[in-house]
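Supplementary Text 2. Reproducibility record for the structural model of the 78-residue chain.

All settings were left at their defaults, and a single model was retained for analysis rather than an ensemble. We include the record here because the model underlies the residue-level annotations in Supplementary Table 4.
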Amino acid sequence: MTATPPDPDPRRTPDLEPGGGVAPGSTPPDSAQTSGLSHPQPMPSKTTPVLWLVLTGILVLMVAALIVSLAIGWLGGV
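Retained model, structure tokens:
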């Protein structure tokens, strides 16, 4: 094997106690890691949120018109 392992050798790690723990106040060295995304994420569409806002606005206006028409009907029937 030509590559070195990513984790440090526990026998050569300073301040490592026999059970694998560390003494209070010491921190073992970090392992190498890769973080982040492997591919760029696609940008979300801006059309969908706008469409939902428009549909919600239309629904709110329809409910308001229904309430107003019911109120006018109740007041006219008195």
